Amino acid sequence: MDPTVPEAIPVIRPRTSGADVLAETPAYDLIELFFFAYRDFVSDPDRILDEYNFGRAHHRVLHFVDRQPGLTIAELLDILRITKQSLNRVLKELIEKGFIESRTGTADRRQRHLHATPQGRHLALKLARLQTRRIMHALAEMDPEAKNLVSGYLLALIDQDDRAHVQRLVFGEKET
Amino acid sequence: MDPTVPEAIPVIRPRTSGADVLAETPAYDLIELFFFAYRDFVSDPDRILDEYNFGRAHHRVLHFVDRQPGLTIAELLDILRITKQSLNRVLKELIEKGFIESRTGTADRRQRHLHATPQGRHLALKLARLQTRRIMHALAEMDPEAKNLVSGYLLALIDQDDRAHVQRLVFGEKET
DNA sequence: GTTTTTAAGTCAGCCTTGTTGACATATCTC
DNA sequence: GAGATATGTCAACAAGGCTGACTTAAAAAC
């Protein structure tokens, strides 16, 4: 299919030589650690969400609405990169159960501005704290410089074209 | 539901005071960066897997079988933490399409020892290299010490009880 | 040597969360 | 007024989780 790699090459000692070894030797350690870390990272909220009969999709929606009050549907779709139909399924539930409120825009009455209700903010905060606890416990064992380094690394992992967008979204500068 | 947090408290300036501020102020930056970084991290393989009509589940199975030749079903289930039925669905396909081979154990003939075929190893390597490229590009922009720091951080994020297990799995010491 | 336990496989059905495609409605823009 | 835009909705499908029940073969226990 893609004969770049002769089959007989052992996975452990690649034959690539010179400067691009770094790019060609699989970084199995980081690949696997990222997998396991992410799994445990999302497992904390899962347990709580179960009690509300919500899933991870609900969590993501609630999280970003809580973080950016007044977010429109289009903006939320852009962040989550899912279809309108997928979003609507979970958003509808969150609205019906009173965790999110949808307000018709004033400038543009076609738009809907989403806001977490007090109940929604409460749940969002509860979940964020759970994840924060894990994040901070991990950082506590390390150099004080680690937090900046880790967030710099995570940012650098993101697609170049999105990086500025994510940076704005994460570190502020929302024009609402 | 859980009245720990009065609703009126603004998310940005929590009223918690003293030493536990770190534990109570949500680390929104890391939470969100982790989300976006992981999304892009798995998106590279997804594009290739599509060509084979495989999904992420296939990738995970192939990855760990490739990394630990001779893995048994029980060991694989323990790593992936999914049910036998879920595993079987994708494993069967990988075997039928010739990416993985299942050999009856010699010491214990009830067991199956899984091995990636040359075709399987080829695909696994191709996918690992894609992810490695992203990982290394991100690291290239940073301090040379960063790699150890990041892997230390990711390891610290993992559930305490599993940490030793994952460490063995990622950094070697397999007794097979 | 029979019984019990274990490893693996399988059938059936369900849930969540993603997808596509088609279409409706209200509102804004030109 | 015509067309574009933002949202909402119906229907059907797919991937990949899950539970529960049951089979088979082989090992272990007795």
Automatic annotation (TrEMBL), chains A, B:
Source organism superkingdom: Bacteria
Residues in HTH marR-type domain copies: 27-159
GO aspect biological process, one term:
response to stress
Q: Which Pfam families does its entry note? A: MarR_2
Which keywords annotate this record?
Answer: DNA-binding, Transcription, Transcription regulation
Q: Which InterPro entries does the protein's record reference?
A: HTH_MarR-typ, MarR/SlyA-like, Tscrpt_reg_MarR-type_CS, WH-like_DNA-bd_sf, WH_DNA-bd_sf
Q: Give the coiled coil ranges.
A: none
Offer an example of a GO molecular function term for this protein.
DNA-binding transcription factor activity
Q: What is this protein identified as? A: MarR family transcriptional regulator
Q: Which organism is it from?
A: Microvirga brassicacearum
